[in-house]
Design a protein that fits this description.
- The protein is mainly β and 387 residues long.
- Helices cover 9% and strands 46% of the residues.
């Protein structure tokens, strides 16, 4: 009996071994899995720095501070800390700001009267915003005389944009369809072209060319047509580029709505004029004689500005979808070949109000930083990460 038991046991082992070998031969060959490529690093480091919920219509830079003009007041942050401090005009819309020095500034402010109608005022501070005094001025004033001989003075418009040229100590401002200058810090104004109370949309684009011989301005007319002016200061010669810029920012065969939001100049291209607006970005490389598109209409986005890296000539821009109440993505676009081609990066957030209304660029100790003013999204601090 013992011999039979041993025989059965060894027979069982042989059958098990044979069965295991057959199962092994039926398995598919083992293959080494292909490793997934690592995701490319983001080209930007983005940090939201505050003022969330506010419409940041304009950003301005000084050596030490970043200023934000919003629908709820004027704010300032030290660049070293990025902690925001309100400088006044609580819950009021700050339209424009001229900085003669960090302690001496002039602000154009829109307030509402008891019936909800806008009141435009100019305020001056000489103590860095600790206190403001309304000044009497003649920007946008005109008089209507009545039959009884009495007259009433109306304030037709504010300076929607202000720019101060320090070498000549001259302040420039643009209204609905007028550009004026002041040599006494905004107390009295002389129109350079246009006039007070013109029928137009606000003209918010205002710039001085690098040679400081021309004032460029722009905006939109009453029929949603773009306006772009070139005024030569030495000869008082005015050139209108309305039609030419309309054909570039729109379909030349079917001109649609367009608007000019900014005019930019860059040091390495003294004869180039960059214009942004509804319809993309346009450039003239010969002082306004000819125009071409740098960035065409992209999904009906509005482009409020374009910046250039002073070290590499890289162009940066960002847009705003015409959406007032819902979040939208923050999309940064850049070009490394003078606008011939563009790349884009979308910040990974689905609930951010990421439409860009203003852009400034800051460089300190070799580090480049972009600051973006967002529509209801506050301010974003963007550091490019170059390969």
């Amino acid at each position: 009996m013992r011999s039979a038991t041993v025989f059965i046991f060894f027979s069982f082992l042989m059958l098990t071994a044979c069965g295991g070998n057959e199962s092994a031969q039926s398995l598919p060959p083992v293959s080494n899995p292909i490793p997934e490529p690592e995701p490319e690093p983001a080209p930007f480091s983005i940090q939201l720095t505050g003022l969330n919920g506010l419409i940041v219509a304009e950003l301005q830079l000084s050596d030490q501070y970043l200023f934000a003009l919003t629908n709820a007041g004027l704010f300032r942050a030290e660049l070293s800390t990025m902690e925001w401090q309100q400088l006044g005009f609580n819950d009021e819309q700050v339209l424009s700001l001229a900085r003669f020095a960090d302690h001496h500034m002039l602000a154009g402010v829109q307030q509402l009267d008891d019936e909800g109608y806008p009141i435009f005022s100019l305020y001056e501070t000489t103590d860095a915003g600790s206190s403001w005094q309304e000044i009497k001025h003649n920007f946008g004033h005109y008089e209507t005389e009545y039959e009884d001989g009495k007259s009433q003075t109306f304030r037709a418009e504010p300076p929607f944009a202000l720019i101060y040229e320090a070498d000549s100590a001259t302040l420039y401002g643009s209204g609905y369809d007028v550009v004026a200058r002041s040599t006494n810090y905004g107390l009295s104004w002389q129109p350079l072209h246009g006039g007070w109370g013109m029928f137009s949309q606000p003209n918010t684009a205002l710039a001085i060319n690098p040679a400081k011989t021309e004032i460029w301005s722009g905006g939109q007319g009453l029929i949603e047509n773009p306006l772009l002016y070139q005024f030569k200061l030495q000869t008082d010669e005015l050139t209108e580029h309305h039609t030419a810029i309309h054909q570039v920012l729109s379909n030349p065969n079917n001109l649609g709505p367009a608007v000019v939001y900014s005019v930019r100049f860059f040091a390495d291209q003294p004869n180039a004029v960059f214009v942004t607006g509804e319809g993309g970005i346009a450039i003239s490389e010969n002082g306004g004689e000819d125009w071409r598109s740098l960035l065409g209409d992209v999904d009906f986005r509005f482009y409020y500005d374009v910046l250039q890296d002073p070290n590499s000539s890289r162009l940066y821009t960002a847009g705003w979808n015409k959406e007032f109440d819902l979040p939208q993505p923050l999309i940064i676009e850049w070009s490394d070949d003078h606008g011939q081609s563009w790349q884009s990066f979308q910040y990974p957030s689905s609930n951010l109000y990421g439409g860009v209304r203003s852009m400034v660029i800051h460089q300190e100790q070799g580090e480049l930083m972009l600051f973006l003013g967002l529509y209801k999204g506050g301010v974003a601090q963007v550091r490019p990460i170059l390969p």
